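Q: Can someone sanity-check these two? First one:
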Amino acid sequence: MNFIESVKERAKQVKKTIVLPETMDRRTMIAADIILQEGIANLILIGNEKEIEENSVGCDLSKAKIIHPETDELTEELVQKLYELRKEKGMTIEEARRLLLEDYMYYACMLVKMGMADGAVSGACHSTSNTLRPALQIVKTAPNAELVSAFFLMVVPDCKYGEDGTFIFADSGLEQNPDSEKLAAIAASSADSFELLVQKTPIVAFLSHSTMGSAKHADVDKVVNAVHIAKEKYPSILLDGELQLDAAIVPSVAESKAPDSKVAGKANVLIFPDLDAGNIGYKLVQRLAKAEAYGPITQGMASPINDLSRGCSADDIVGVVAITAVQAQGK
């Protein structure tokens, strides 16, 4: 059984309720059909019934709950709650109502905030900022989390590196240029996410263009400092750096470049120095190695709210919903 099939099976064991607000997208409707037929999660679809019907021709969505914000009696209650949550930031009742009626991701996040759903997935036809801004405003950071970050769960076919080709790449979706403290926190969250989702021991490499002092630059210093912070704050996590990518995952290279490292050559959690590197890295592996790429998956959120690449397929959406459901189980 491959990785995503195992996640689907775990999701089925304790079914969670996930909101899909992008009912204007055909891929979402196809994914919803698969999710419902396979019993991966309970679904709430937000949108106009007529539009949903037009976009779901050939799909069976009879098991889904459909909420049309303009007519549902729940809307006014959510308007009031959103206003109360955001009034100190200057939000008015009128603005709260407009957001809930016009931006279905706000509605989805309010359902999660109110405990009416366990998580939400969006981003097939919206940007990451459109997906995560409402989540950060409404659902917010978990009490025990230092920050919210994002990762891609990468599954590389016929790959002997990582955990049989399975890796976490972080941060590949949210933190633009994390400092050393943030890099250390991202590493800790990513280790937890790997253990939850892959159910194997995380082995964390902090990546750089330098391996163990081979290059000198402020960018390298940032990563070196992050490793020192992480080792001090999270002594139970197996981590090391700074490591070039080949030294992190290829045993023969690790023997040459970092022979004393317990991580080099074995890493399955890769911490990139900034968002540029992380985003470019995951897309290179996805396109050139034909890897499955699930995400951006958020971590550190009070409840799981996850993003999609706008180039995603219906199967990708199914996979992210299954991951979201398992994250909700972990809460």
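And here is the second, same format, sequence then tokens:
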Amino acid sequence: MWIVKIGGSLAKDPLLVDWLEQLGDLGGGRVVIVPGGAVYADAARHAQAEWHLDDVVAHNMAVLGMGQFAFLLQGLCPDLVLAAEERDLERAVRSGRVALWMPLGLLRREADELTNWDVTSDSLSLWLANRLNAERVILVKSCPVPFAMPTRGQWEELAGDGVVDGRFPSLAAEAAYPIHLFERTELMRMRDLLLDETMV
């Protein structure tokens, strides 16, 4: 099983449909898509700054933002199987479909290690990958990415530059699977990887 995180920064990008179509055509039986937070998570950040909301409130708003982007993705590609529970994600993949994560299980009543802005949908992709025993994780970004498969030190650099969140490097260091970074324009590279998983 592969986790493919579609960055929320692609929410207004014409290539978004191409990514979804390619994953839908070639990723059936293998791929679980994680939605980014898009402008919906940005709204949570702004609301927290404006109203001095606590981190649990902001976290829950951002999770619901990921859910809104998930609905947008399914609206663009109705064949994606929207699922909140891990067993339903696994069932969709086993049936040969592409699953789309609705992360409602991440809503919280009290603070924990996930309820701060060091954790975004990037780190949540690794969190889900660990829960599903994923074979690889792929992050699709709209910003330039200098490393295709970063090392631990390079993840630190990328976090410092804002390409991934602050928690990501420590989670990546513990990952037992390869983690790939893709720029929004690298559809052909993604196609090659889907067609032959030995290619990076």
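A (reply): Looked at the second one. The domain at 2-195 is CATH 3.40.1160.10 (Carbamate kinase). The chain has one domain: 2-195.
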